[in-house]
UniProtKB/TrEMBL annotation:
It comes from the Bacteria. This is ABC transporter substrate-binding protein. Belongs to the bacterial solute-binding protein 5 family. GO terms for molecular function: peptide transmembrane transporter activity. It is found in: Periplasm.
Length: 494
């Protein structure tokens, strides 16, 4: 009679253990993104996909963006600003270590900033550091940054992913083995599939609820829909098939978050290449584009039309869409005036995101209607960075600039679309040196007007950011003040 009792006891124990496991709160996450990073160093590439995985999770800077775009303390717990605005003294948190166990101190801050602004720096946003004159270590927890002139946006600049703090001890392997100070440590990267992070049990700040997070890369919209419906993934940030959102909204298993981004989606024109070096041609291209048709056709209605490189949710935004309204006849006249009565042929190189691939087909048809023929080439992200961004080998391309407050890129003649306007550069220099909010606001409005009137690029729409997630998941960012998937506040419902 003892054997059945023993079997019963074992069965009861298994049942109780199973019940306890079922009641245990889930603490891991599988989240999908469309773009895979080309490598894992946010300080030496223009790919926002790197920040999408690593920003605030693995790497941290002196300051950081909150979801509403405000600037908060990061590795610096506080700072003092000199009366003339040219000296910032940052006081660092005590007890911060890198994931390899080495101490993070003022020397690492100096190394990071000096590396970013060095003559041979590969930092994609090197201009963020151009105003720094000197970085001085006052003591292990205090670093002083002296500027060449006052910079009203300096604390904002220090929150970018390009300004995170890295260490000389681990810099050689950073592209494949990133070592930061954040709440998650890098575990593994299966290229073409996923990146895994693990909770940093030695984190200096508040520990995250998640013990493990896996970023899966699913570029195909159909595959993204299937993976989400099958619940093979817990969330998809920046869901690439907006036509499927109503189906998720109607399903109680899921939640749909639609937020705003800093992503100005543009049809970029190579201003350094004929015929786009002619403002008349650029204006003709702008008038050939029906923005709403692109938003409806490629994004299924998600997106806000823009007429300049500025986010509509910003209080300084100016609606200049009328300067480049859809007018095919005006476009044809401008082409004739520029010496192209029969149009011309150019390249249209498209990166992987849906807005580019789907929007590219629509734009090609619109341009064809006014006589501009396009030779479409679909590029993978690494190819786009090499050919278009670095190589400037393109006529037209479509890309969303997700960096925050980045109108100053139009002051860089060597930037990929090669716009060269001394008046605009002078205005940006004045803006940098100005701290008065009202004066800065006026300058930002003037800057928007200049690039809109010059038709530097065809400004399309502000990218919306739809996220589909398990209904029990909380703490995901709805909006994208910078390109990031911040997991520090994410948790599962009990």
């Amino acid at each position: 009679m003892t054997r059945p009792i023993a079997r019963f006891s074992l069965s009861l124990a298994a049942l109780l253990l199973g019940s306890a496991a079922a009641l245990a709160q889930q603490d891991d996450l599988i989240i999908a993104l469309q773009l895979e990073p080309p490598h894992l160093d946010p300080t030496s590439a223009a790919a926002g996909a790197i920040d999408s995985v690593l920003y605030s999770n693995v790497f941290e800077g002196l300051t950081k963006f909150a979801e509403d775009g405000s600037i908060h303390p990061g590795l610096a717990e506080s700072w003092d600003i000199s009366e003339d605005g040219t000296s910032y003294t940052f006081h660092l948190h005590e007890g911060v270590t890198f994931h390899d166990g080495t101490t993070m101190d003022a020397e690492d801050v100096k190394f990071s900033l000096d590396r970013a602004r060095a003559e041979d720096s590969q930092n994609a946003q090197k201009a963020l550091f151009a105003g720094i004159d000197e970085v001085t270590v006052l003591d292990p927890l205090t670093v002083q940054i002296t500027l060449k002139a006052p910079d009203g946006g300096f604390l904002f600049n220090m929150a970018w992913g390009d300004a995170v703090v890295v260490a000389p001890e681990s810099i050689e392997g950073i592209k494949s083995n990133p070592v930061g100070t954040g709440p998650f440590t890098f575990t593994s990267w299966t290229q073409g599939d996923s990146i895994s992070l693990t909770r940093n049990e030695s984190y200096w700040g508040e520990a995250p609820a998640l013990s493990r997070a896996t970023f899966r890369f699913i570029s195909d919209p159909t595959a993204a829909f299937a993976a989400m419906m099958a619940q093979d993934i817990d969330a998809y940030a920046g869901f690439p098939a907006p036509e499927n959102l109503p189906q998720f909204e109607a399903d109680p298993r899921f939640q749909v978050l639609v937020g705003s981004t800093e992503g100005e989606t543009i049809l970029a024109m190579n201003n350094g290449l004929e015929p786009f070096d002619d403002p008349l041609v650029r204006e003709a291209v702008a008038h050939a584009i029906d923005r709403q048709a692109i938003i409806d056709g490629a994004m299924f209605g998600l997106g806000t039309p823009i007429g300049t490189h500025f986010a509509p949710h910003n209080p300084d935004y100016v609606d200049l869409t009328d300067l480049s309204n859809y007018d095919p006849e005006a476009s044809k006249t401008l082409l004739a005036d520029a010496g192209y009565p029969d149009g011309f042929t150019t390249t249209l190189k498209l990166p992987p995101p849906s807005y580019a691939r789907r929007g590219g087909e629509i734009i090609a048809a619109q341009l064809r209607a006014v006589g501009i023929q396009t030779e479409i080439t679909n590029l993978e992200w690494a190819q786009w960075l090499e050919e278009v961004f670095r190589g400037k080998d393109f006529g037209l391309t479509i890309v969303s600039h997700t960096e925050p407050m980045d109108i100053n890129i139009y002051a860089r003649p060597d930037y990929y679309f090669q716009y060269d306007n001394p008046e605009f550069r002078d205005l940006m220099a004045k803006l940098t040196a100005t701290t008065d909010p009202a004066a800065r606001s006026e300058m930002l409005k003037q800057a928007q007007q200049i690039i809109a009137e010059d038709h530097v690029n065809a400004f399309l729409f502000q990218l919306a950011f739809p996220t589909v997630a398990d209904a029990k998941l909380h703490g995901l960012w709805k909006n994208q003040p910078t390109q990031a998937t911040d997991l520090t506040g994410v948790y599962w419902e009990k």
